[in-house]
Each structure stands twice: as structure tokens, then as C-alpha cells.
Write a structure and sequence with these properties.
By secondary structure, the protein is an alpha+beta fold. About 25% of the residues lie in helices and about 30% in strands. The chain contains two helices and 20 strands. Strand 9 and strand 10 (about 125) form a beta hairpin.
Length: about 260
């Protein structure tokens, strides 16, 4: 009977993780470029139970402790495009595995699909979280400055009027593509970390004046949330029923 407590408790913890992931998806439904996370489960390895005491040690059965969270994966399915008319808003079209390259204030190279860019006090192109958007100049990654006028980007990511911190022309935006089967690590603010080479991205168009919306479907997430809550409550009732039964067994033993 006690075995049921382990299975139910494991189920509750697994569903709690699922609820947290779904809640995070719903909280970012209006975040440009956000990619939804998904939870997968697997059964916890069974543990053998041995007879204790002076008798020879024998295996008397196994204890299944329910399911645990296997991994949390990200869906890179592209979100719909939204026309903003802002020349600093950029979206990547045609290749769901393409990302912009940015540099954090700490100097780390990261990747993002959130193309809601702006200019800082030095007219440097940055993300809403203050990361520098990078371009390519003479084969090197450089920060992008606009000394005058508006940002102009064509469909291939070629820039017009953009320079680096030395005043040299910046040729194009820096983009990366995730190799098949490789995952990126989410680090917050719609940023991803990974070891990926920068280069030409096939079948990728840069669309100026547009933003890629989140790929979260609120209806699907709400249905998943209700299912997770029902499973959580079911496991909770199992624990309550088991606890009540064990309490009665103790009362009988005390008679």
C-alpha cells in the first residue's frame, strides 16, 4: 500500500513541472519570437525490494515509483508575422532554424528570434534587453551603428548605411542556423545559448517592418493545463485515500 504513495507523489511532482512549463508558455503568448516549451515523461526505473533480517537475502519484488520528467524541449515552429511598420523590427521568414546573433552586456554570444530592436544612446542597434545586435564586416562579427537615417535591410540581410564602432561599413546581419538534431539552451529574455557557426543561411528571408509572434496557441495550452491539473488532483486523492487507509490499519493494530 505504501508503494502507492511513492507513485502518486512522483506523479504530482511531474505534473507540477508540466503546469509550470505551460504557465510560462501562457505568460509569453504575446512575447515576439518566443518558442513554446514541451514536457516529456518517462517511467522511473523500478527498484528491487530485498527481505531484511537474519534470513538469507532474497529479492521479494519490485517497487515502481511512477513517472518523472524526462526532458523539457523547445518547439522551433515559426510563429505568425505581424506587420508593425517599424523599420527597426525584423523577422526571419522561411527557415525556422535561423536566428539573429547578439552579444550580451557580459560579452557572451547568444541567439534570438525576437527581432524587436531599437537604438541606444550611441545609435547602436540593440535588443529590448540591451544586447548588441551583430553584423558581418570583413568576415568579423561587429556591432551595428546607424550614424544617420533609418535602418535599411534587404531580404538577404544586406545593410545600407550601417557602420561598426570604427566607422567601417557593415555588410549584412549576422545569422546562424541550428543544425538538425541540435538543441539550444534558453537563458531568458528570448535568448538562446549554443555552439553554432555563423554563416549564410539558405532559404531565409529578412523581413523589415515585421515581427514574428509567439508560436504559443493559448487554446492548446489551456487544454493542457486543465489536463495536468486533473492528473495532479487525481494523484492527490490517491495519497489522501492511502493515508486514510493506513490510519485505519494503525487503529486496528492498536486494538
Amino acid at each position: 500500500m505504501v508503494r502507492g504513495l511513492y507513485s502518486a507523489a512522483a506523479g504530482m511532482m511531474a505534473q507540477q513541472v508540466r503546469v509550470d512549463v505551460i504557465a510560462n508558455n501562457l505568460a509569453n503568448v504575446d512575447t515576439p519570437g518566443y518558442k513554446r516549451d514541451m514536457v516529456s515523461f518517462r517511467s522511473f526505473p523500478e527498484m528491487l525490494i530485498s527481505r531484511l533480517g537474519k534470513a538469507p537475502k532474497r529479492n521479494i519484488g519490485s517497487l515502481s515509483t511512477g513517472s518523472i520528467v524526462d526532458e523539457i524541449t523547445t518547439s522551433y515552429r515559426p510563429g505568425p508575422l505581424r506587420d508593425t511598420g517599424n523599420p527597426l523590427d525584423l523577422a526571419l521568414l522561411g527557415n525556422a532554424n535561423a536566428f539573429f546573433v547578439v552579444r550580451t552586456p557580459g560579452g557572451e554570444l547568444c541567439f534570438t528570434r525576437q527581432g524587436s530592436f531599437t537604438l541606444d544612446g550611441n545609435r547602436r542597434l540593440v535588443t529590448t534587453s540591451g544586447c548588441a545586435v551583430l553584423g558581418i564586416s570583413n568576415g568579423q562579427l561587429v556591432e551595428i551603428y546607424l550614424p544617420a537615417g533609418e535602418l535599411q535591410v534587404n531580404g538577404n540581410g544586406l545593410l545600407t548605411g550601417a557602420v561598426n564602432d570604427q566607422g567601417e561599413l557593415v555588410e549584412r546581419l549576422a545569422l546562424v542556423e541550428i543544425p538538425a538534431g541540435q538543441a539550444l539552451q534558453k537563458i531568458g529574455n528570448s535568448l538562446y545559448r549554443g555552439e553554432i557557426a555563423v554563416g549564410d543561411i539558405p532559404d531565409c528571408e529578412v523581413r523589415q517592418g515585421y515581427l514574428e509572434a509567439s508560436n504559443v496557441d493559448p487554446l492548446t495550452e489551456m487544454v493542457s493545463m486543465m489536463a495536468a491539473m486533473r492528473l495532479y488532483e487525481a494523484n492527490q486523492r490517491v495519497i489522501q485515500a492511502t493515508d486514510s487507509t493506513l490510519g485505519k490499519a494503525i487503529e486496528v493494530g492498536q486494538v
